[in-house]
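Lab manual, section 2.4: Encoding a predicted structure.

Procedure: take the sequence of the chain (168 residues), apply the prediction step described in section 2.3, and record the output as structure tokens. A sample record is shown.
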Amino acid sequence: MSERRPNETPSERADRNFGDLLQELRVTQTGVQILFAFLLTLPLQSRFESLDAWERDVYVASLLLSAMATVCLIAPVAYHRAVFSLHKKPLVVRVAARFAIGGLFFLALAICCAVDLVLDLVLGRGTALAITGGLALVLLATWVIFPLLQRVGDLPEDAAESTPPEDH
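Recorded output:
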């Protein structure tokens, strides 16, 4: 399916793919940790007491989703540390990639909840829900639909990078 690098052994490919995955995780971990830290400080703000039941529920959902994203995005490091001596790097790469996908899923939901909470306070519930729905569609399109279409080859070559996909 994907083009292999010449003279690259399966072990070298697994090492390269794990390195690539760790680079991707560094970007997402930073974002999710900033969001999580922001959410942890919200109850310490004076205005937090004035939240209605909906806003508190959205806050709790956002906090828990960002915690789950944090867990999933850090899990590949813990998993690697636990099994690295078993010399099963291809398995580590597959498991780590699944954790990363789960982390991105929880991060997308946490982003939507956090944006909805803030917009609800600033613009009102109806407007907040409409904008958050639009954001959810953008996240779905850019993080799921477009990559899946490219993966199955339904996009023309000029619509995306023409280089073959990596083995993640």
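Check your result against the sample. The chain has a mean pLDDT of 85.
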